[in-house]
Amino acid sequence: MWLSPHATHYEAECEACRADRWSLAADLAHIEGTLRPDADLGFASCRRGHRVVVRRIVRPSIAAKAS
Q1: Is 53 part of a structural domain of the chain?
Q2: Rounded to an integer, what distance in angstroms lies between the CA atom of residue 50 and that of residue 47?
Q3: How many domains is the chain partitioned into structurally?
Q4: Which domain holds residue 11?
Q5: Is the pLDDT at 49 greater than 70, yes or no?
Q6: Domain assignment of residue 67, yes or no
Q7: Strand ranges (E), 1-67
């Protein structure tokens, strides 16, 4: 899952649960959480236990663009 540079809260559906045609309930696939503004990487799990990597889209700094 990718977050915008300034996002701190996310909500999504677990892709592994969606791919499972025998998924019992859609609410089990729901993932929501937060990522600190200073963090670029986090982890979450759906209620069925699938692990999801949460990453922030990092834009190049102005200093890096100037070089």
Answers
A1: yes
A2: 8
A3: 1
A4: 2-61
A5: yes
A6: no
A7: 2-3, 9-13, 30-34, 41-45, 51-56
Residue type, 2: W
φ, ψ dihedrals at 26, nearest 5° = -65, -30
Q: Whole-number mean pLDDT of the chain?
A: 83
Residue 66, domain member (yes or no): no
- Each residue's pLDDT tens digit, 4-25: 999 999 999 888 888 876 655 6
Q: What SS3 class is residue 58?
A: coil
Amino acid in the structure at residue 22: W
Spatial separation of the C-alpha atoms in residues 52 and 2, rounded to whole Å: 10
How do 51-56 and 41-45 pair as beta strands? antiparallel
CA–CA gap between residue 61 and residue 59 (Å, rounded): 6
Q: Is residue 54 part of a domain?
A: yes
